[in-house]
């Protein structure tokens, strides 16, 4: 009987999805790690980098701290990104399955909601690691505030308010995650559908072993993922800036004021620096990183799904 067979396969399918998501997360984050670090330094206006741009900032990091400093904080990022990406992609597939058809057969609203819910689920589980990683990435030569991952966690817990302090900036992160993750998955799935429907000769190949279902070629995956990343990051970026200011607020007395709450932090950023130089500060580097980040993430994930026989192609 097919019903028991499907139930029996569920844990195996979930494990494969977790593996595919974890690999995708590692590939995408490693690809943009240097841009991630300079983005944090620009967003929080580090004293040594506030007057620099993206490329001059990257050059300054290499000259003052060495090439490996471009990847400062990336180890904890890997610890975070594997469960985060694995959880996000797997949760997305599960939510999409349960929501499938709720808004009509050809509607992509369910994919927006599934993407948003998957992003919130993964962010909630791994947020403390994002906090630790941001603190480490913000350090420059001569800073002796923290000695390592465990030291960051212990000091935040003991000196800044216990377990709750590890979730400082969580609210803007979750609010931003809804349009960010939702639009990422929605835009990618919509563009994927359009490529298969309107331009399959250019963007798709057939999988004969799976009854001829269509799959995107690598170029199309990167293109759809890049556009999805640009759209999603543009909408959610001010909340990302707010989150970073709140995460890093307690590192210096002059920035304590940014740790009081989401709306007050956003208001202070706007009053002090305006929209483009405040709420959208670092947007250039964000575009430079968001396009390859989302593109590599979706591409790696779909390739892994095909390798693990989770994606049998689509008929349109």
TrEMBL record:
Family statement: Belongs to the mitochondrial carrier (TC 2.A.29) family.
Localization annotation: Mitochondrion inner membrane
Keywords annotated in UniProt: Membrane, Mitochondrion, Mitochondrion inner membrane, Repeat, Transmembrane, Transport
Protein name: Graves disease carrier protein-like
GO cellular component: mitochondrial inner membrane
InterPro entries listed in its UniProt record: GDC-like (IPR002167), MCP (IPR002067), MCP_dom_sf (IPR023395), MCP_transmembrane (IPR018108)
One GO-annotated biological process of the protein: transmembrane transport
Any Pfam family hit: Mito_carr
Alphabetized Gene3D superfamilies for the sequence: Mitochondrial carrier domain
Solcar repeats: 12-98, 106-194, 216-307
Lipid bilayer topology: Multi-pass membrane protein
């Amino acid at each position: 009987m097919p019903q028991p067979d499907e139930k029996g396969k569920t844990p195996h399918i979930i494990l494969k999805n977790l593996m595919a998501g974890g690999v995708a997360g590692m590939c995408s984050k490693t690809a943009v790690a240097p841009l991630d670090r300079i983005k944090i330094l620009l967003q929080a206006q580090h004293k040594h980098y506030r007057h620099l741009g993206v490329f001059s900032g990257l050059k300054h990091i290499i000259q003052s701290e060495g090439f490996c400093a471009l990847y400062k904080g990336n180890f904890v990022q890997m610890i975070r990104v594997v469960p985060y990406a694995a959880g996000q992609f797997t949760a997305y597939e599960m939510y999409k399955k349960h929501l499938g058809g709720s808004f009509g057969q050809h509607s992509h609203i369910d994919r927006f909601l599934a993407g948003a819910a998957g992003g919130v689920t993964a962010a909630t589980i791994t947020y403390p690691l994002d906090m630790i990683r941001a603190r480490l990435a913000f350090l420059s030569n001569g800073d002796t505030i923290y000695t390592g991952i465990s030291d960051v966690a212990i000091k935040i817990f003991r000196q800044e308010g216990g377990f709750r302090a590890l979730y400082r900036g969580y609210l803007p992160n979750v609010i931003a995650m809804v349009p960010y993750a939702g639009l990422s998955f929605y835009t990618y799935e919509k563009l994927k559908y359009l490529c298969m429907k309107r331009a399959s000769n250019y963007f798709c190949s057939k999988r004969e072993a799976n009854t001829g279902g269509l799959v995107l070629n690598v170029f199309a995956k990167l293109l759809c993922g890049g556009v999805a990343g640009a759209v999603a990051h543009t909408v959610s970026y001010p909340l990302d800036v707010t989150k970073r200011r709140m995460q890093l607020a307690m590192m210096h007395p002059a920035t304590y004021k940014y740790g009081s709450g989401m709306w007050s932090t956003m208001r202070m950023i706007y009053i002090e620096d305006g929209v483009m130089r405040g709420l959208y500060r670092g947007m250039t580097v964000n575009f430079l990183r968001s396009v390859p980040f989302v593109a590599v993430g979706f591409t790696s994930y779909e390739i892994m799904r095909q390798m693990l026989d989770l994606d049998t192609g689509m008929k349109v």
